[in-house]
Amino acid sequence: MGVSFYTLETMEKYGLIGAGRTLLDFGSSNLYAATADQIAAFVRRHVESPRPDLDEFANRLASGSGKGPDGQALNQAFLGELLEAINMTYESIDIAAGYKTRQVDLNVEPLPAAMVGRYDSVINCGTSEHILNQLNTFNAIHAATKSGGRMMHVLPAIGFVDHGYFTYTSRFFFDLAGYNQYEVVDMWYEGDGGGDENIFTTARQYQTYFPVLTERLAKIGTTDRETKQDSVKVPTISISLVFQKTQDVRFMGTLETSTSVGEFTGDLRDAYSEKQGSAAKTG
Questions:
Q1: Which residues contact 129 (CB under 8 A, 6 or more apart)?
Q2: Which residue in 42, 174, 208, 280 has the fewest CB atoms around it within 10 Å?
Q3: In the prediction, which pLDDT does 215 show?
């Protein structure tokens, strides 16, 4: 996972960044596309007496946030390093080792108790789409955030055909906010509608394991449907939202009813409409 300097400035704009704040990063984020001048100016905006080696520090992070000769990210600069330079407390959870990271498998593990209600800011920048257990993941994000704290999501919405497990709709996030009494501070999309992804990319990768995929791919060029589908250049657009947690209530999840035609039981309705007053908990 990674956060560009542009995304960092967006976090700053919406009040997630500032000296003295505590931040939990879902996925240990590398810092991308930052110049030394941008880094130094960012630090000076937030602290009156920056670290004495600021220029050296800024040059190191800028270099590590770039790309190598092969065009791939170097992944040698971390978001947490920069946030700590402005006297923020940075922590992360991830399945893999990383900067200031506690290893947690959100498919099966709840948020550690010591992290519940601890953070002023919680960010999910390209992480939750890789986790199968969505309910536990968004429960953990809710639980980690203090009452009055802010959450920021930057996630795939359209395209990303071979990236992770999920893309997200605005309906999901608006229902998430409604059921859990979040204020929607802002919502926007990133991406201009351009792109050249191919919907069969993953099928081509997995055809060795599942021979039926080879049969399907062989239809490209011989059948109208698959040939047209293969020619589509799929755009990539991400969805971004900032929420504010207005009350310390138990996580409610969401209930999607837009296509339901039958009646719901009273117990089911009650489960998603009960008044909540207890502290957010996991598990």
A1: 155, 156, 160, 163, 164, 165, 166, 167, 168
A2: 208
A3: 98
